[in-house]
Specification:
Structural class: mainly beta
InterPro entries: T1SS-143_rpt-cont_dom (IPR019959)
Shape: elongated
Radius of gyration: 67 Å
Largest sheet: 5 strands, antiparallel
Strand content: over 45%
Length: about 850
């Protein structure tokens, strides 16, 4: 309002963005009004200015435009308006002052060589300066990142994106040919602390090839964004990632060469690459003692490589072990040592090597299992007492076990033979030497005073059958006089030699050379104990055995013997026939020439065993006092059991019992004598077998089955009894064998037996099973003692009753009394009925 007019117009009001404000007409200076965009100053005279605020919202447009409609009025109330257009242009973009860099190492990744055990990350804070508008966030610009694809992970270009959009969280990732995404790193801006960010490394990045543990740097384009959404100028967030390199270690594999029993053995596993690094190193190749081998990079398990010394197993991850073969050549050294140089490479082509020293120690020496002994006799030499007419030799085969190496030969050690010179021939010490004309052959020899060598024996090992040897006796060896077993034994020290030339432990080949002495042999005499009939027919005898089939050139004779561990019994050296010696078991006959037989007695005690066995140790001696013994085992088997010839039967009657119809007034008994024949042993007693009596219970007394038992108070006496309904035992009969007259017995009837009903005075028969028992306790065959018991019947007699008819004065009169059953019998008869004039009464 450059001119207020003559009517003195003033500004009365204005509207700002539609908001009406009224001026105070009493204030002559600037009047201030506050709005979101700033402060409006206006005077009554129409002077207008504006002081804008900062950090205004220019997100919709670069300019904020406001319309200020100003109204004036004069004294005539003439209103006039004008419009002031306010334009506030967006101010300066924010300024990033500093972006701290990030430095991390792949070694700390979970699959790195020195894993940290936590996230591999770094947190920093960007410093910045707010300008016209406040900074509200930071962002990365994916389109400006890795524009030339130089940054790679696992050979794939790393890309960047915000995920999710607007979150302030960014991921660096790769995409495989199969469209699989792999997150390589993340960067997260802290929503609570403006400018703070955390960079986290997740996967290894590709470093320059073959530089070892080098660094890789790249930039992330960072922008500060103000409240209007305006970016600052870009600032680069520098990231440096240290390369990771695999760890390779030298090591050793030690093992002993295995033997056959071990089967497949292996060293422990050594890890030459305990950490493959974040770049995923693998073993690519190795050399074994200079031999180059390459690993299959597609094979995840153990890869097997064969060498002369065994099997090498190695994995891409660096685990190495070795399975040695057996029968390896250790001739030059106790240890076979091989160098294994292992090479690894990672995805950055960082190559490292390590050396594994394989040591295979020579294993077990061979084992000699058995060395069969040699037994020969000087008697078979051409000048012996029984020349064989051929070489006096023995061929045997040593059994052995190959251990770590195979046995290739056997040898004898001359320096260990006959130390002390105890073995002599013709008074000269026997020595041993290798036969210069026969490989594997050895000669035992003596050297006399004139230095002449005489061969005593030879031993040679077969060149076609490993372990087979032949020992040949050529001359007699000196024996000691008077030894019980006139043999001479000595040892030859034998070694098995393996393919490395290693000896086994020594084993002794024992050689026994028999002196030219009598031949004694063990024998057996077997016979059955004779019977009386055998003795009557002649004297039974065993066969004759010869305990000394050869008396030797020194004229041996039987000098003595021991019967059943008893005293020594000497033979008469002047008696050329059989010499007789009597013992409890019988008579022994023996000759000086070693013929032995035995005539047994009968009635021998076989109670403990079916056989009586006696040992007869026979001793012989020759003119050199060479004593030899043999054992004759005499076995006398228990002979025939006794024979019962006849068992007289018993016949008794119940009428003679005390309550019978004609009591005898004494015991109702019968005594008889069993006749028998003694066989190999004498009869000592007789017995009845209760379990074989009245089987089925047919024999009864008073309706109860009769049993039998031996009287415990009187051995040899048996009681036949019944048990009534109240459990009381009632003796029915007894039978007692005499203790003074062998075979005599007495049968006594005590109570009546139940006969067949209604047959009157009939008989009842039953058997008692009788055995004869000999002195050995052996039973004869059973014989039955037959018992016949006659039934008893009551006695009935007729009678007469005479009487005169009474009168009234007589009263009651009676006849005399007569007894129609004077004896009721042993079976207890009673009157059951009568008839009177044809009328029956019960």
């Amino acid at each position: 309002m450059p001119n207020q007019s003559a009517d003195g117009a003033t500004i009365t009001e204005f509207s700002f963005g539609g908001i009406v404000k009224t001026l105070d007409q009493s204030i002559v200076g600037e009047q201030q009004f506050s709005f979101t965009e700033g402060e409006l100053f206006i005077t009554l005279q129409g002077q207008v200015r504006f002081e804008p605020n900062r950090d205004l919202d220019h997100s919709a447009s670069e300019d904020i435009v406001k319309s200020i409609v100003v109204t004036s009025s004069d004294f005539d109330n003439d209103p006039v308006t004008s419009t002031v257009t306010l334009t506030i242009t967006d101010g300066d973009i924010p300024t990033i002052d500093a972006v701290p860099s990030v430095t991390l190492s792949e070694t700390n990744l979970a699959d790195g060589s020195a894993p940290s055990g936590s996230a591999v990350s770094q947190t920093e804070t960007i410093t910045f300066t707010n300008q016209s508008d406040d900074v509200v966030r930071f962002r990365l610009e994916p389109t400006e990142f890795n524009t030339n694809d130089a940054l790679k992970s696992n050979g794939l270009a790393v890309e960047l994106r915000e995920d999710p959009q607007g979150s302030g969280q960014y991921i660096g990732f790769t995409t495989s040919s199969s469209n699989v995404e792999t997150t390589v790193f993340t960067l997260d801006f802290n929503s609570g602390t403006l400018g703070e960010y955390t960079f986290t490394l997740i996967e290894a990045l590709d470093h320059q090839d073959a530089r070892g543990n080098n660094d890789l740097s790249f930039n992330l384009p960072v922008y500060a964004v103000d409240s209007d959404g305006d970016d600052s100028l870009v600032s680069q967030l520098g990231v440096t990632i240290g390369d990771d390199v695999q760890i390779m270690l030298d090591g050793k594999l030690d093992i002993v060469e295995p033997n056959l029993a071990d089967g497949t053995v292996t060293t422990s596993i050594f890890d030459v690459m305990p950490n493959q690094s974040a770049d995923g190193a693998t073993v690519t190749q190795f050399t074994y003692d200079g031999q180059f081998r390459t690993l299959d990079q597609n094979e995840n398990g153990e890869q097997q490589f064969s060498f002369t010394e065994g099997e090498l197993f190695i994995t891409l991850q660096g685990e190495v072990r070795f399975e040695p073969n057996r029968d390896l050549d250790h001739k030059l050294n106790e240890d076979i040592v091989k160098s294994i140089v292992v090479t690894s490479s990672d995805s950055d082509n960082d190559v490292l090597t390590s050396t594994v020293t394989l040591t295979i120690t020579d294993g077990d020496i061979p084992t000699i299992d058995t060395v069969p002994s040699v037994t020969l006799s000087e008697t078979n030499l051409s000048d012996g007492s029984a020349p064989s007419g051929s070489a006096v030799s023995s061929t045997q085969t040593i059994t052995f076990t190959n251990q770590s190496d195979d046995v290739t030969s056997f040898r004898i050690e001359p320096t260990e033979f006959n130390i002390g010179g105890a073995l002599t021939s013709n008074g000269l010490a026997v020595e041993l030497k290798a036969d210069p004309t026969t490989p594997g052959g050895y000669i035992g020899y003596v050297t006399d005073g004139s230095n002449v060598e005489t061969n005593v024996f030879t031993i040679s090992f077969s060149d076609t059958n490993l372990g087979q040897y032949t020992f040949t006796l050529l001359e007699a060896l000196d024996h000691v006089d008077g030894l019980v077993k006139n043999d001479l034994s000595f040892d030859l020290p034998v070694y098995a030699v393996d393919s490395d030339g290693d000896d086994s432990l020594v084993s002794q080949l024992n050689v026994t050379i028999g002196d030219d002495v009598q031949v004694m042999q063990n024998q057996a005499l077997n016979i059955i104990e004779p019977t009386v009939a055998d003795l009557a027919a002649g004297t039974p005898t065993t066969a004759t055995v010869d305990v000394m089939p050869s008396q030797s050139a020194d004229g041996a004779t039987i000098t003595q013997f021991i019967y059943d561990n008893g005293a020594v019994i000497t033979l008469d050296q002047n008696d050329t026939g059989e010499q007789k010696f009597v013992f409890a078991e019988g008579s022994l006959f023996i000759t000086l020439q070693g013929e032995v037989r035995f005539e047994p007695n009968r009635n021998l005690d076989h109670t403990l065993s079916e056989d009586i066995v006696k040992s007869i140790v026979v001793t012989s001696s020759d003119l050199d006092n060479d004593v030899v013994t043999s054992t004759v085992t005499l076995t006398i088997t228990d002979g025939d059991i006794p024979t019962i010839d006849a068992v007289p039967s018993v016949t008794l009657s119940e009428t003679n019992l005390a309550d019978g119809s004609t009591p005898s007034g004494g015991a109702v008994s019968q005594t008889e004598t069993i006749t028998f024949t003694n066989q190999s042993d004498d009869v000592a007693s007789f017995r009845i077998e209760p379990t074989e009596f009245n089987v089925g219970g047919a024999l009864k007394s008073n309706g109860f089955a009769v049993e039998i038992k031996e009287d415990s108070a009187n051995p040899g006496t048996y009681i036949g009894f019944i048990t009534d309904g109240s459990g009381a035992e009632i003796p029915v009969f007894t039978i007692a064998f005499s203790t003074s007259t062998l075979g005599e017995y007495t049968f006594t009837l005590l109570e009546a037996l139940d006969h067949v009903d209604g047959l009157a005075n009939n008989s009842l028969s039953f058997d008692l099973p009788v055995y004869a028992v000999d002195s050995d306790g052996d039973d004869s065959l059973v014989s039955q003692l037959n018992v016949t018991i006659g039934d008893d019947v009551q006695i009935m007699q007729d009678g007469t009753l005479d009487i005169t008819e009474p009168n009234l004065a007589d009263g009651t009169i009676t006849t005399n009394t007569i007894d129609v059953m004077p004896n009721q019998s042993a079976d207890g008869a009673t009157i059951t009925e009568f008839s009177f004039g044809g009328i029956v009464k019960t």
